[in-house]
Amino acid sequence: MLKQILFVTAAGHLVLSVTRVLFFLLPDTWRKPFVSMGNNNQTVATDFIFLGFSSLAELQKLLLVVFLLLYLITLSMNTTIMIIIWVDRSLHTPMYFFLCVLSFSETCYTFVIVPKMLVDLTAERKAISFLGCAVQMYFFLFLGCSHSFLLAAMGYDRCVAICHPLHYNSIMTWRVCAQLVVVSALSGLLVAQVVTPLIFCLPFQASRKLNHFFCDISPVLRVAFTHTNLSEAIIFTLSISVLTIPLMLILISYLFIVLAVLQIPSAAGRHKAFSTCSAHLIVVVVHYGCASFIYLRPNSSYSSDQDALISVTYTILTPLLNPMIYSLRNKDVKMALQKAIRKNILSQKIFQ
């Protein structure tokens, strides 16, 4: 069952890659169907210009090397975790199934943003087409929101494991795990399907310059000529819901976990129970810390340069930290990795 689900997720990754490539290979006549609306200041955009790293022109080559290195490490670590979980049968449990899906989600998430950012660091004109910007925002919202709900599902898994250990296998069946992943994906899909058309149906200013390095909500809305209070209210409400609903579910799960752990008589038992949640808790704090700073604040405190810096954290550093946290703090993953390395070394000696 796990191999079938992993195969489906890998196929989804391939479809995502092919779809993104096809969008950018469309003819210009298809990608620029928008015309002036008769007002010199009110023009529907055909291209957006990124200004995210324009103030660091002398450091762009260094940033390219650093970001490329971090991106390759992130890809290799997430791929390693997925392969180890797939190969090692001792890791075919709900906890590691969610970890595998999380690694896959992180891989897709970075693929949507980082390659384009790396290309722009080598280009003089850092532009993206209207359609390309819409596609990037759509998948960014889809994967980012799905990530939040997936963390809530992982919190529920830890809650069941600690609060109901004797009934864990009967509650967290493979069907339930698959349903939680599907609900997480559908939640992200719903947000992306609503927010993206609301933003890109707006007329945009002639400048169309985004003080950012990818098509995030706030920078794109900043260059919109006008947007209604209704659309802004819908976008803000969905942003709050995507962050607060999963966070509330996580907090409820950890409330039950704390109550259950406090009933354990021995200190060693309490430490062991908490240690199974530490990696997930660290990932939650990093994820919601960055996301809340960007999206849960009034417009008056908006700072483009500050947001671009924070965005680097949750688009490059956070996907790198997540597999490191889970691999370094998880005994089972480290043992499986060591076993795979020893097995590979042994097979090499045999064939020499």
From TrEMBL:
Residues 77-326 form the G-protein coupled receptors family 1 profile domain. One of its GO terms (molecular function) is olfactory receptor activity. InterPro entries: GPCR_Rhodpsn, GPCR_Rhodpsn_7TM, Olfact_rcpt. It comes from the Eukaryota. The chain crosses the membrane at residues 5-26, 62-87, 94-114, 134-156, 176-200, 233-262, 274-296, 308-328. Keywords: Cell membrane, Membrane, Olfaction, Sensory transduction, Transducer, Transmembrane, Transmembrane helix. Coiled coil: none annotated. Its main location: membrane. This is G-protein coupled receptors family 1 profile domain-containing protein.
